[in-house]
Amino acid sequence: MAVVQPSAVGGVPAAAIAAPERRWRDLLRQVMGRPSAAAAVVVVLLLVAAALLAPVLTPYDPTHIDVFARLQGPSIRHWLGTDSLGRDNLTRTLYGTRVALVIAVPSVVGAFVVGGVLGLLGGYLGGWLDRVLVVVFDALVSFPSVILGLALLTLLGPSVASVILVIATALVPYYGRLVRAQTLAEREVGYARTERALGASRTRVLLRHLVPNVVPTLLTVVAMDVPGAVVDAAGLAFLGLGVQAPTPDWGVMLNDGFTNIAGSPWGVVGPILALVVMTSAFLVLGESVRAVLDPRGPAPRRSRQWTFRKASR
């Protein structure tokens, strides 16, 4: 039985249809070929290792109170000193890496998945579903995110799960709008039209061609939203609205450290350095992805106004 070649339809070569499968591999190879991106990946992996191996890397319990060792400076036993309750600052910083990643990664990835699925369906199917989603996204974006976040935290109470939900809720409409716009542009490209002309189902075109082409171009935004989520979570904890003591969180540590900064400034060193390192690594990684996808283009605009840090603008 004769097989119809994709190149025979619309003058589009077969390579254009196979391109989406190669795009992921090409993107990964080009990104990792940049020294700055490779260094950023190494830093991120070290942070993940620190989060996972914290019990092995330090002999102290991050919540153990020792009133006889409170507010000590750096020493052989306590490299970054101790806090107001005698807890080792370095230990709490290492464990705080775990809390930061547990909040930031699920909130950003979850928001991207939910917003991405809705944006894909709306942009590809169109019709009443697209119109409803546009209205919902616009309504959520126009609603003050600070009020929305405070309302959710008041309703659910301060916890790790609540902070994840607040950050994810603030991100979903932005991802939905970005993915919808990208889907509208991609669905009329040659390979998508060729597949439809060959009789491919909507599901096949959506999953095999649109998703592999839409997602890589948005990885820049995702990578740059992770450090924003980390800072948001730390800010909420610092204000007493997020993760609560005695959980070893960087925001909780900053709150305690600034309270006693006059007599013992070492309490803020660990969390500040950790925040700088983590945010810088993800930002460099996101910039590297952007440079590969669009070498001559400007840096991408932020996908949203951060829930609490830009509310006053």
UniProtKB/TrEMBL annotation:
Q: Which residue intervals define the domain ABC transmembrane type-1 in the entry?
A: 97-286
Keyword vocabulary terms for this entry: Cell membrane, Membrane, Transmembrane, Transmembrane helix, Transport
Q: Does the keyword Membrane apply?
A: yes
- List localization entries: Cell membrane
**Gene Ontology CC entries for this record:** plasma membrane
Principal localization?
Answer: membrane
Q: Where are the transmembrane segments?
A: 37-57, 99-125, 132-153, 159-176, 218-243, 263-286
Highest rank taxon of the organism: Bacteria
Q: Which InterPro entries match?
A: BP-dependent_transpt_permease, MetI-like, MetI-like_sf, OppC_N
Any one GO BP annotation for this protein: transmembrane transport
Protein topology in the membrane: Multi-pass membrane protein
Q: Does Cell cycle appear among the keywords?
A: no
- Family, as annotated: Belongs to the binding-protein-dependent transport system permease family.
| Name of the featured protein | ABC transporter permease
